[in-house]
Each structure stands twice: as structure tokens, then as C-alpha cells.
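This part of the workshop introduces the protein records we will be handling. To make this concrete, we reproduce a full record directly below:
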Amino acid sequence: MGARPKPPAGGASQLAKGPALTEKNARPRLILLALTLGLLGLSLSYAVFDVVVDNHRAALENDFQLEVNRQLAKLEQGLAQSVERIRSVSAFFYSFGDVGEAEFRSFTAPYLRQAAGLDLLGWAAIEISEEPPDPNDESLSAGISLPLSLIEPGPVEGMTFGDDLMAIPKMRAAVDRSFELGEIQHLKMNDNLVLIMPTLDEVDWSGLVMAVLPEASMLAWLGDDWNGAVSIIDQVSGELILQLGNLDASVRPFQSTMTFGSEMWAVTATSTSSSGIPAVAWGTLLTGIAITALLLILIVTLAGSADRAERLVALRTRELEQAEAEARSQAVRLAN
């Protein structure tokens, strides 16, 4: 009998090396994939978190702007009503000419009854000074005085019968603008607004209607039941008209404008409530992290399975090599 063909030397080892090599390469790839997916998942989670927070803050800013506009509309309506009342008093003097104390009281009484509104109404007749005016003074109010002759509901400190309105600081400039434009002008006095408008007779200006609008009335119109601070400034003079609360310099302000007679006022408002981070943003972030963690656990599990498969292949390879060695030894013994 011929000799048996010998099994190829190392055949089992060669067959087993291929799978083992594949398993050894799979583990690093799975680890790299886990790191990549982990970084990507965390990045996407934080990106979505930022989007949710930004949308929440934008919604709060929009709600705050709507609230500011609503409150400003109330203030503007109250101011417009005051302007119309002063204009009606001016028209009353033009229509009736010589207005006495009784007529003035009867006409203005309804305007002074409201809780929020004008606090005082008066009228001053124009008196021409007997002294020649300064030739260098080209203002419309040069050489005149404005002594108060009518006051309702009555005299108050700083405004009594016979007091010259021209003695009030900044009054002359306001009177000049009022005479030039024929419109209502304002000036600040003791945190209140003093409003003036000229009255006409058949020939020229006959006097000046004067009204006091308390700061408390403007604050009542603006309201104090909203979470915000507001500052209102005359755009031309830069004078502070009204201040409610303290503006927060760290918050992006909401800026707008409002009209008062022929004037334009600039409005700046900031929210006093903290925007914070909504619960839905934290929920989105935690959900993203949880999903990323589950994917990493799955990949780590696969990597562990690959490692166990690698060890099992190595074990089976060693057993096959041992069996092959024993078979080769037995074949040699039989051949001898």
C-alpha cells in the first residue's frame, strides 16, 4: 500500500488566522465608531438645546415688546386726551373772547375731575412791558409777561394769581416755540409736565393756557403691573420725560417712539424678569444624551462580543493545532 498523503503542514493554522485577523481589526473600528457617534450625539444635543433656549428667549422678547406697546398705547391715549382738552380750552377763549372766572371754572371743571389726568388749568394774559425790548432779543416773547389771572381748581405753591409764567425756568423757550408753531409745548417742573398753548383773539395771541400733568397720572396710564423698566426722552431736547424702574444694561433693550402733540419721544424699555432656561430645553438635552448613551452601550456591547469571538477563535485555533500535531505524530508512528 502506498503511503497516506500527509496533511499540509500548518493548514489548520492558516485557515484559522483569517477570522482571527478580522476580529482583531473589528474592535478598533467599533471603538472609533463609538467615539465618533458619541461626539456627534453630544454636539447635536447641545445644538438643539441652544436652539430651544434661543427660541424661548425670542418668544419672551416678543411677548415683552407686545406688552410694552400695549402699555405705551394707554399712555399715548391719556396724553392725547390731555392735549385735546388744552386745545379745547384755547378754542373756548377764541370763541367767547372775554372769559371770566366763573366761565373758566364751569368749562374746565369736567377736565379736572378724573383720577388720572390734568391736575391744574390756568390762563395768563399777555402783557406788553412798558420798557422798550432789548434790540438784540429777536424772540417772539421779547418784552412780554404772562401773569396768571385764572387758576382752577385754585392757586398752588409756585402758581398763584399774578405770578409771571415767564419767570419759570425754560418757560421762555417753550413760549417761543408755542407762539411759532401755534401748538402745545411742554417743560418739566418738579417731576411734572407743564403744558402750554397760546390763545387767540380776533387779531393776535391774547394769552397762554397752562396745565399741569402730574407724573403720577402718566405712571397710572403706563401701569405698573408688568415686568419691565421704561425710560421716555424727548428726542429733540434729550430731556427725560418719564422713568419707571431702572433699565438693565445687561439686557437687549426694546426701543420705540411715541408722539405727544407735535413732538416725538423716544422710548427705551428692558424686561426685569429673568428669561432663564425652560424645562423643555433641559428635557431635550437629557433626551439627546440618553439616546447617545444607548448607542454607545450598544456599540460597546458589540465590541465586547467581538472580543469574546476573538478569544473563542484563538481557543479553537489552538485546539485545532494541537489536534493537528497529534494527528501528524500518529501518522508518523503508523508509517514506521
